[in-house]
Amino acid sequence: MHEYDRISDEVLCALGAAVGDDNLQLFEPMSQHTTFQIGGPADVVVTPTDADAVVRALDVCAIAGAPVMVVGNGSDLLVGDRGIRGVVVLLRDRFADIAVDGTRIRAAAGALLHDVALAAADAELSGLEPLWGIPATVGGACHMNAGAYDACTADVLESVRAYVPGPVLSDGTRARGSVRTFAVSELAMGYRKSRIHDEGLIVLEATFALAPGNGRMIRVEMDDYQRRREEKQPLDMASAGSTFKRPEGYFAGKLIMDAGLRGASVGAAQVSEKHCGFVVNTGGATAADVNALIEHVRDEVRAQFGVELEPEVKRIGEF
Ligand SMILES: Cc1cc2nc3c(=O)[nH]c(=O)nc-3n(C[C@H](O)[C@H](O)[C@H](O)COP(=O)(O)OP(=O)(O)OC[C@H]3O[C@@H](n4cnc5c(N)ncnc54)[C@H](O)[C@@H]3O)c2cc1C
After folding, report:
1. For residue 235, with 0-12 CB atoms within 10 Å meaning exposed, 13-18 middle and 19 or more buried, which class applies?
2. In this structure, which CATH number among 3.30.420.310, 3.30.43.10, 3.40.50.150, 1.20.1250.20 belongs to the domain 8-90?
């Protein structure tokens, strides 16, 4: 088994060559890259600006056996207070080209779903309206099959170009990966799951297939979805959206409310007063606060209703 110690100078040089030295930061606080505004420093953050640079960076990590994590908009992450050991490949606004081609839209993994939906509205293309309020990158949305209002990413996704990690070698490092295009039918996308998640594929680009529509009507619908979100969700507070997945036959927020946990808090982490399905950071919460609150909520709901709440938020790094 390959023992990871720390990112060596040799690997740092190779990463700098892969993405450009200006696109590499050491000990970068992850609180700046998560919507929870929580998270200690990552050893190394690289922000590639094109697909080739993403592939080069991932191959450097694979060959060196360095732990690597891809982060998009950080809107589904709780990063531990001690941060992340290894390399974070941050795919966001530096890798965010969007191109409209007839009724299709191609978008780089780091583009925000919000911006793709605005481009669609400008081009009078319909299909993304229910999803536009999700603060996801295209890569994060495909990974999770993000969805809202009975719609999900898979409904409008045509294909994804992705990095496929190479096989694990006998010393625990990996061979170089390859790049392949997958039709949506090959991606086994279900409720908050996909083959992208299961096999650790890294989305480089996605193509959405949309329907011709009326630009004005599309915007009216988008505004309506946004209004519904603003009414129900604590959008003025830092969070990672719904903290728990929807348990079969129940709504997590209702169970939490019925358990008497509205406003329950640990440190500066709080069960939202507005929507009990959200844990919010009221200012200066630590990952340990949020984690303890999540476990408290799970214990109470299990004890009172016998229902197991599974976190939707991904807890990563060192706590
Ligand atoms: C206010 C608020 C409202 C929300 N509403 C919704 C909602 O209505 N519906 C919903 O589904 N979610 C919702 N979310 C949660 C979140 O926005 C989604 O889960 C989203 O898909 C996460 O995307 P991201 O780019 O932020 O990914 P991140 O949080 O950065 O990462 C999440 C996972 O995706 C992986 N990932 C990121 N980029 C890539 C890539 N290029 N290739 C492969 N894997 C990648 C990461 O490794 C990680 O495992 C909400 C969050 C907030 C804060």
Report:
1. middle
2. 3.30.43.10
Ligand 1 lined by 70 (C-beta under 6 Å): yes
Q: Residue of the nearest CA to atom 4 in ligand 1?
A: 241
- pLDDT tens digit sequence for 13-72: 999 999 999 999 999 999 999 999 999 999 999 999 999 999 999 999 999 999 999 999
Q: What does the DSSP assignment read for 123-158?
A: TTEES-GGGTTS--BHHHHHHHT-EETTEEHHHHEE
Q: Which position among 31, 192, 239, 272 bears the catalytic label?
A: 192
Å from CA of 311 to ligand 1 middle? 13
Domain 98-231 has CATH 3.30.465.10: yes
Active site residue 192: yes
Ligand 1, atom 27, lies closest to the CA of 140
